[in-house]
Write a structure and sequence with these properties.
- The chain is an alpha/beta fold.
- It has 3 domains: 91 residues, Conserved hypothetical protein from pyrococcus furiosus pfu- 392566-001, ParB domain (Alpha-Beta Complex), CATH 3.90.1530.10; 32 residues, no CATH class; 59 residues, no CATH class.
- It has 8 helices and 5 strands; from the N terminus they run ββαββαβαααααα.
- It has a 5-stranded mixed beta sheet with strand order 1-5-3-4-2.
- A hairpin with a 5-residue loop joins strand 3 and strand 4.
- Helix 1 packs across helix 2 and helix 7 packs across helix 8.
- It is elongated and about 70 Å long.
Length: 210
């Protein structure tokens, strides 16, 4: 599909977009567009009268208009039916995956502190604090290698209600903790749930050996 650059004033919103952005996140989105431009093309379709209707990216278009961008990138999907346009709108708004919290925390650290990135990323202050602290745990009672851990001797996990817990880990030890948990996850098959639950099962599995 071909990317075109057009004036945001030529794009009109559709009447059925279910995606709502809070005023606070609108400000963050505007700051993001100011910093990075509209790097993800807007999805549009062509109506019978030749006008262009937004399928995905309405809030980015609004931010571009507010910032007085002359042109933004679009992908024109042609004359789609209402049914197909609505399907693509939902797909564009949604996501199939979920963040690996530990990997996300490392990635965000490369961008700066929570205060540095709070103004343009779609996270609240509490959410960023939780993500940044996700790889923290005290290591006083842990060995420095995994060679002597007999993972097969540990008891199997049972189904139970989970509780989200937060710990702090020295940054120089975070790689070791991640490697230790990954070892247990892979060897014992803790792969059937979300990444946080899988890691939690592996951690409990290792600690019970102690």
């Amino acid at each position: 599909m071909k990317i075109e650059n057009v004036s945001p004033s030529l794009l009109k919103p559709n009447p059925w977009n279910p995606n709502i952005v809070s005023p606070q996140n609108e400000t963050k989105l505007e700051e993001s567009v100011k910093r990075n431009g509209v790097f993800k093309p807007i999805l549009v379709r062509e109506l019978k009268d030749g006008s262009l209707e937004i399928i995905g990216g309405e809030h980015r278009v609004l931010a571009a208009k507010k910032l007085k961008f002359e042109k933004i990138p679009i992908i024109n999907l042609g004359k789609l039916s209402d049914e197909k346009a609505k399907e693509l709108c939902i797909l564009d708004n949604g996501r199939y995956g979920e963040d690996d919290t530990l990997a996300l925390s490392e990635l965000l650290r490369e961008l700066g502190t929570p205060d540095d990135i709070l103004s343009f990323l779609p996270y609240s202050s509490d959410e960023l604090d939780s993500i940044f602290n996700s790889s923290s745990i005290e290591l006083d009672d842990l060995d420095s290698s995994t060679d002597d851990i007999d993972l097969d001797s540990l008891p199997s996990k049972t189904a139970q209600v989970s509780q989200l817990m937060r710990f702090k880990v020295p940054i120089e030890d975070s790689e070791f903790v991640q490697r230790l948990v990954d070892t247990a996850m892979k060897s014992q098959g803790f792969t059937g749930e979300d990444s946080l639950s899988n890691a939690g099962h592996a951690l409990v599995y290792l600690l019970k050996k102690k």
